[in-house]
Amino acid sequence: MAAPAKTGVVIKLGGSVITEKAKPFTVRKGVLERLSSEIGEIWQAGNWVVIVHGGGSFGHPVASRYSLHVGKSSGSPPMAISMVEDAMRELNREVVSHLIKAGMPAVGLQTLGVAHASGGRLDWLNLPVYESLVSFGVIPVSYGSLVMDSSLGYCILSGDDLAVQIAVGLSAKKLIFATDVEGVYSADPKSESAAVLLPRMSLSRDSIAFGSASNDVTGGMKKKVLSTGPAVQAGVEVRIVNGMREDVLKQAAFGKPLGTEIVL
Ligand code: ADP
Ligand code: IPE
């Protein structure tokens, strides 16, 4: 199937933005409501939109309870599959219903049903489903989650990796990561007050200090930046912006050079 004709924007809503990462199973409803209305404006401007969201305080605590990390082999009970998926479906339901309330035809897509991995890496993604939905003006909403893996049994696929593969597969124009800081800094801005924001970050030239991601089973900001490689290489404009500040996501989608652009 051909890639959708209109301009495409893939948006990854970080778990740090839509949930309170330190409080298990807590959605930031006000933030989600505001972001839904910004996404509505992006979509109404004639772009096709795909949303991917992270696990935040839903997926991460459950995945770490079962010792599941990216690429880790399965030694956990089958209950892990059920519990991680159930937690993520609950969060997905919240995201989808906020988008519908804001007037958008959003449809939750269960990641386990549209993606598969091998050795901890995505090896199959049902792109035709995304293509058909966006060609109907629908907004598919997927999420980082547990997927079946032909060598490991199952593994955690981050929303960042999923968003990158969707953006590449559908030839999106932009891929925007909304997170809880302004972008990529010279060091973790939460622990280094002297850290400076980088308007551009080169994957091949810049070496950045990243803070640890102790309660994050998918590796935090470092992993997010490194995962963008295939999209940058494919010519997708990739940006990491602050989703906690009003209108930043919307303005970034409309071309304002906010946050950090990731380049080769
Ligand atoms: P999300 O949940 O939005 O996907 P993460 O929590 O995984 O995002 O990563 C965002 C966090 O990464 C920020 O809250 C920040 O404290 C941390 N971080 C660590 N190192 C850096 C850095 N060099 N630049 C920006 N943020 C960093
Ligand atoms: C993690 O996805 C999914 C699970 C832990 C089940 P992400 O890695 O995209 O989540 P956030 O954005 O960091 O919360």
Short description, anyone?
The chain has ten helices and twelve strands.
Can you walk me through this structure?
- The protein has 264 residues and is of the alpha/beta class.
- It has a single domain (8-263), classed as Carbamate kinase, CATH 3.40.1160.
- Helices cover 36% and strands 22% of the residues.
- The protein contains ten helices and twelve strands.
- The protein has helices at residues 15-18, 29-44, 56-65, 79-101, 111-114, 127-135, 159-169, 220-227, 229-233, 248-253; strands at residues 8-13, 48-53, 106-108, 115-118, 121-125, 139-143, 145-149, 153-157, 174-179, 200-202, 237-242, 260-263.
- The two termini are 29 Å apart.
- Adenosine-5'-diphosphate is lined by residues 14-17, 54, 179-181, 184-185, 187-190, 208, 210-211, 213, 216, 220-221, 224.
- 3-methylbut-3-enyl trihydrogen diphosphate binds at residues 14-15, 54-56, 59-60, 63, 84, 88, 144-145, 156, 158-160, 216-218.
Structural class: alpha/beta
Helical stretch count? 10
* Oligomerization state: single chain
CATH superfamily: Acetylglutamate kinase-like
User: What count of structural domains?
Assistant: 1
Strand order across the biggest sheet? 3-6-2-1-9-11-12-10
Corresponding CATH architecture: 3-Layer(aba) Sandwich
Kindly report the CATH topology. Carbamate kinase
- H/E element order: EHHEHHEHEEHEEEHEEHHEHE
pLDDT averaged residue by residue: 92
Are there runs of 5+ residues with pLDDT below 50, and where? none
Radius of gyration: 17 Å
**Hey, roughly how much beta strand do the residues contain?**
15-25%
**What's the total number of strands?**
12
Could you tell me which ligands this complex binds, including any ions or cofactors?
adenosine-5'-diphosphate, 3-methylbut-3-enyl trihydrogen diphosphate
CATH class: Alpha Beta
